[in-house]
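Hey,
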Amino acid sequence: MFVEVGPGRVLTGLVERILEGRPCLAVASDGKAGVDRLHHLLAQLFVHGTELSLDPLFTGRPTSRLELDRLVETTRPPAPAGTTWLVCGGRARPLQELPAAQKPAPRLAPKPVEAPRPPAAPRPEPSLPTPPAAPGGGGVIEQFQATMRQALEQQQRMVREAIDSQQKVMTTYLAAQQAVLTACLGGTPMEGVALPGLTAAPVTAPAAAPAPEVSPEPEPAPPAAPRLDLTALLLRLVSERTGYPTDVIGLDLDMEAELGIDSIKRIEILSGVQDHLPGGVSAGLEDGLEDLAQQKTIRQAVAWLENRLAQAATAPESVARGEETAAPESAVARHVVRAVDAAAIEQPRTVAKGGVVVLCGSGPLAAAVAAELRTRGLVAVPVDVPESEAEADKLLKSARRKGKLSGLVLVAPDAGEGELAGLDRADLVGRWFVLAKAAAPGLAEAGGKGFGILALSAMDGAFGLAGGPACPLAGGLGGLAKALARELPAVVVKSVDVPRRGDPAKAAARAVAEQLGGDPTVEVGLSGARRVTLRCVAEPACGEGVTLGEDDLVVVTGGARGITAEIAVALAERFGVRLALLGRTAVGGDESPATRGLTDLAAVKAALARELSAGGARPAPAEIEQAYRKLSAEREVCSTLERLRRAGAQAEACAVDVRDAAAVQA
């Protein structure tokens, strides 16, 4: 039996000629009939005794069961209704032909010219022109005209309803815009103010009884506050942060992907919006800044702001006008991560036996985990930390020879035991990620029936919150586990911490039992009989407990730009401390004369292009953009240092990789 898969049927013909006269079956999947050819191929294989699974053939396709003895009746299309008409440009007739005596003429012929008659009395013109009736068919034409008249009336009614609905929508929209503008003006009523591009509808005051006396002339109203244009404000703030002119910033551009505005810079821009709003309205946006930062485009951000401002307009008048109210005892909400007790696992899940669990780690704890996996019917395959993606793929390919991939265990090394010898601490989490990324497809395929991903650390059974030694690598591994839990929702992912001291076999048994449990909690600490998880717990603010002076040195990581710069300036203004700002941007020497003093984006990039092409080679747009970003970063760092010096602080910006301990100490 031979099946040819692919275009044509050359191989099928060759087989038939070679085996001519001998019993064989050669079929091709290609043919002019398309999918019908595939059906014929499967039918031939089936009648020759081949066992087939036809379920994939019908996956995603609607199916119905047919009775062969009633095939004609069940597949015949339903007959049209008796009131169905056929209408074309020249005639109209019922789909079901009338008796011969009532059939209309095949075409509408004009009436023969008759002798002139006396003029008849004038009569009103009908709403629809009535063509001459064909002999014997007058009733049909009149019925058709009545049907068309009803259709036109129905269409007119639908148009009227659509217009009424649109009028209601526009009325609601104008009311919302009026509320937004009212809020932006500090709650001042806006009678008679027109929206951009629209004519304000006159406001009709309710009828009042005539006053017995002439009322005195009202005092002239104070000039209205300027209307806040949220779109223009956002465009200006984005332009200041990115360097792009406002006329090239599209409202529908992705702020992060196309404008290079990350989430932190987005918060800074939106905080700038708050500075231009009335006090009460600005305070009402505090609890929504995180949601506002999730808006992808400027247009979406403007719509979100208008919606929140409309809600603020309905707040009490004192709040809308920004009047002072009684402040809570603590204006700052302080939350601290604590280890809190968690309920025990009641119902463990079922995991398929014989699955392969890749184990990346060393030391007594990793060895105990491998032994525990084997006792539970799983195949533990120890591997080294991969150097690259290619090596990770190679390790997993070798592991799959022993069975289907079921899980991945990452064991954090114990810094106190010397297990980090020869490993780059800064890169270890990244290499764990490479291994997890390579294993992700296989783990997703196993789903809930697989062992999943277990990130195991050994601090104190509470992630370092119970007084034990904290390990930054273990914290990085826990963060990786939480990210994987979001990226792979079908895979069971847990970050488990056990005590550093104790019996490794008992710790491994509890950790594996936790992974096989049915509780979806990602972060779990196990110590003795206690099971804990991490929660943010509200605690009182620390108050004014910290006092710094001019001789104190504060090291600030994260560079001298963005929100980090604002924090540094606040420290300088409050305490006058010395500051060392560690970041990636190196600042040295004066700016090139080619760009000095230029602020326009086009002018700056043109100057950079000329400077880069001084050697004769024409720079690529990517090179110009890279040079522009570097210049912008250096300017921002210089601006921050100048602000710190004006605040009376001694500040220095150092370009250093904070992951390099030797460089930081130097």
